[in-house]
Prior knowledge:
D-Maltodextrin-Binding Protein, domain 2; globular; disordered C terminus; WH-like_DNA-bd_sf; DNA-binding; DNA-binding transcription factor activity; Transcriptional regulator, LysR family; transcription regulation
Amino acid sequence: MNREPxxxxxxxxxxxxxxxxxxxxxxxxxxxxxxxxRHIETLEADLGISLFERSLTGLKPNPTxxxxxxxxxxxxxxxxxxxxxxxxxxxxxxxTVRLTASTLISNYVLxxxxxxxxxxxxxxxxxxxxxDSPENLLMREADIAIRMFRPTQLELVTRHxxxxxxxxxxxxxxxxxxxxxxxxxxLWDHDILGFDRSDAxxxxxxxxxxxxxxxxxxxxxxxxxxxxxxxxxxxxxxFGQLHLTRRTPGLVVVPVELGVPPMxxxxxxxxxxxxxxxxxxxxxxxxxxxDAYISGATAPxxxx
Length: 304
């Protein structure tokens, strides 16, 4: 080894393997692709070994890199745990809290809630992470998460805030143009908006006896907000939250029973962070706002 590598180099190394590419690592770390590339080159120079095979398709980790990956990930976990313990020991009323939720909740539900949160806690800065993939609280990718599934890690504090019905949704202009379906048979003959890679809708349809495939979705996206905007534009029938549908001008609940269980809403944080006055204050304030939304007492922002 020529010299001890800086931790930032190891961090980029782990991200390249986890994400499978320089571009993916750059996105996950919020850095540029050339910076990640330089980090890898510097790490190899510091260690005096090669870690990746270069080709036209990108970087492929060699056996040495794969052996190093697990201890580096373990070190990342230990450092994240140390950061959580340190944050939990802080008692100041100011500081920053990082909150993650789906893109749909982040864009259409949180703005109204955060208005009240900011009035209650003006000294606390809040970072929002809209993401349709779960952020890892144990790796400190967020302090507080709004989940639409029950978290199972023992290290987390969770609160079940309620359940939101899921319904088929269309804009009134689409229904005026194509008519309103009255049964599941009618529904599948319409322009259905669905996921691109996720097969959640397809699997549920098959459970009901309908052989749906990806090709049935004339417009596809894995971004929940984008799908919602397509529905609002009158481009077809999608699936969404009953509460949000009723609060969005022009949207109508399609009168077809899907047989879909309601979507649970959970608020969660790391157990050690829950001892922080700052984290607890934002956690409780967001919980109050979500309680009001679920009960139908609030009117979330609905951008046009």
